[in-house]
Every structure is written in C-alpha cells, then in structure tokens.
Design goal:
This protein has helices at 13-16, 22-25, 74-79, 115-126, 162-170, 182-187; strands at 46-48, 55-63, 68-72, 85-94, 99-105, 132-137, 142-147, 175-176. By secondary structure, the chain is α+β, with helices and mostly antiparallel strands.
C-alpha cells in the first residue's frame, strides 16, 4: 500500500503531477528568434517550401572560415565583382520542426555548374512534395537523395511571411547594403 499523504503536502505526487498538454492548452507559442542559413544536414529529413513566395534568387557573400553567409543588395553585388555568388534561398523545415533557409547554388551567369550544385537543386525540388535526406557521395562528386517512406505527416510551416523570416535570418548586420559594410571593409583591408 502506497501512502499518498496529504493533498496539501507539496511533495505529494497528486500535488506535483501535471498534464503534459498544459502548455498547448494555454496557447503557448514558441518565439521564433533565429533562422539559420545552412544546407540540410546529412542525417535529417527535410522539406522545402513549394510556394514561389518562399524562395528567391539573391547574391550572397560567404565567409567560409567563419561559416557565415550574408545577403548582398544587387547594387552592392555589382560593385564587388567576384566576391558574391547567386543562390536560391529556400525556406526549409526538418522533421523536428526547425526552420532554416537553404542557400541552394545556381549555375554561374555563363551557365557553368557542377554535379554537387545540380543534385542539390534536384533535392530541393523533390523536397517540395516529399520528405528527403541529402547525403554527399564523395566518390561520385554529387549528392544522393533518399525519399522517406510514405505516411509521414505534412510539415507545419510558420505563420510568418518569408520577408519576416529573412529579416530574422539576415538581421544583425548580415545584410550587406553598402560598400562601406564592415565585412566588405575587412575584406578590402580597410
């Protein structure tokens, strides 16, 4: 026989027990404070948003050593030839519900591309309708795409607009809107 004790006792299991759904019953929502710019991890299944409103072509500047990606305004990109590349930003989500923006490589202006970029774009397109994993085939020089079995639930996309998500992702100085931006000054030794 277990002693449940007095209900007013704070250590009584009946006093401590909580309903796990209590947070959802109260209408609690997680604040979206960070949206990383990254490609999908090899271990995660992901989806990319199928709507054109949640993808766009932009110039980016990537600092490989710092693992940082900056969006670059078109007029600034024109003023710093060779420093940027054109990518397609796509809103993505993984099975855990974590959002990120993937900067999918596009062919160069003269049409050149490699198998890595081509297969990454193909993975992004398949991920519009199916949960996929993208794994590097180092020996073959391309990505392999694995489609999850049928029956996985559809992703729950955020209520925020793509514009709001870009503001979160590239806020805090990650938008290069001037040739005097601190990152460009550092690259030019100023």
């Amino acid at each position: 026989m277990t002693d449940q004790g007095n209900a007013s006792d704070p250590f009584n299991p009946l006093s401590l027990r909580i309903n796990p759904a209590m947070g959802t019953e109260l209408g609690v929502k997680k604040a979206l404070l960070h949206v990383p710019i990254r490609k999908p991890n090899r271990q995660e299944y992901f989806r990319s948003h199928p709507d054109d409103d949640n993808q766009m072509n932009v110039a980016v500047l990537e600092l490989k050593e710092e693992r940082e990606t900056y969006a670059v305004m078109p007029d600034v990109a024109a003023a710093i030839p060779g420093e940027t590349r054109i990518v397609q930003l796509r809103l993505c989500i993984n099975r855990a519900g974590s959002l990120y923006i993937w900067h999918v490589p596009l062919p160069t202006p003269d049409g050149r591309e490699n198998a890595w970029h081509k297969t990454a774009r193909e993975a992004a397109e398949i991920a519009e309708t199916k949960w996929v994993r993208m794994v590097a085939n180092l020996g073959g020089g391309h990505y392999e795409v694995f489609v999850a079995p049928m029956g996985l639930s559809e992703p729950i996309w955020p209520e925020q607009s793509f514009s709001d998500l870009l503001r979160i992702a590239f806020g805090g100085g990650r938008l290069i809107d001037s040739v005097d931006h601190p990152v460009l000054r550092r690259l030019q030794g100023r």
